[in-house]
Amino acid sequence: MLTLATVNPGEPEVFSSLQGEGPSMGRPSVFVRLSRCNLACRWCDTAYTWRFTGDNRPHRDEVAFERGENQIGLAEADVAALILLHEEDRLVITGGEPLLQGAALARMVALLKVTRPALHIEIETNGTVAVHPDLDPLVDQFNVSPKLAHSGNPTELALVPERLEAWARDPRAWFKFVVANASDLAEIAALQERHGIADDHLFVMPEGTASSILRERSRWLAEEALERGWRFTDRLHIHLYGDTRGT
């Protein structure tokens, strides 16, 4: 059984779009968004995957979502069947934190590979959870987004040294750091040095859910990336569709 987010009550969030961020930006992909997260970012744009009524962890919007309307459980075979309705050759598994459901994900991906063995599997993760051993060999790409201090998460929960070091050694892993202020850059540089993250696998991305904010932050962040030898990524889906579900 997998626990998914919903687009509308009872409608699982499985959709086709262009990948909006990171090394695959602009690629046509089918997305599946899972529910539940072990972290709580103040600026999270998918808080409907974790901040349910009764969850008082801080969020800038202070909105609580009804679990029954925003979360749905489906058998792995049913999720695979929904994905196979889409023609794209790349699957992006996002969340929430997908790796919390690693065993069920492994069963679902194995089913997909029977019908579509060349399907590229891309998983987005906050980098705190180890990959389930049955899932690991089925994944082509990990988009690892460690959460900095401005996310509001306790450091001991958000930045797990052994996990970051393991990701840094994995050639499938690409790091994507969300940047809100110039002061975040020193924290990224320290993490890079401490854990041996390669320049060409390190992306910086402006935080924001509006094109105007992204453009403003992109101007100085792109220059910083150029100077430091890092890679820059925008949030293409925000510019195209706004801050909406299923895009």
UniProtKB/TrEMBL annotation:
Q: Binding positions for S-adenosyl-L-methionine?
A: 43-45, 96, 145-147
Identify the InterPro entries for this entry. Answer: 7-CO-7-deazaguanine_synth-like (IPR024924), Aldolase_TIM (IPR013785), rSAM (IPR007197), rSAM_sf (IPR058240)
Q: Which UniProt keywords apply?
A: 4Fe-4S, Iron, Iron-sulfur, Lyase, Magnesium, Metal-binding, Queuosine biosynthesis, S-adenosyl-L-methionine
**CDD domains assigned to the protein according to its UniProt record, in alphabetical order:** Radical_SAM
**Which sites bind Mg(2+)?**
46
- Domain Radical SAM core: from-to ranges: 24-243
Q: What is this protein called?
A: 7-carboxy-7-deazaguanine synthase
Q: Which organism is it from?
A: Novosphingobium jiangmenense
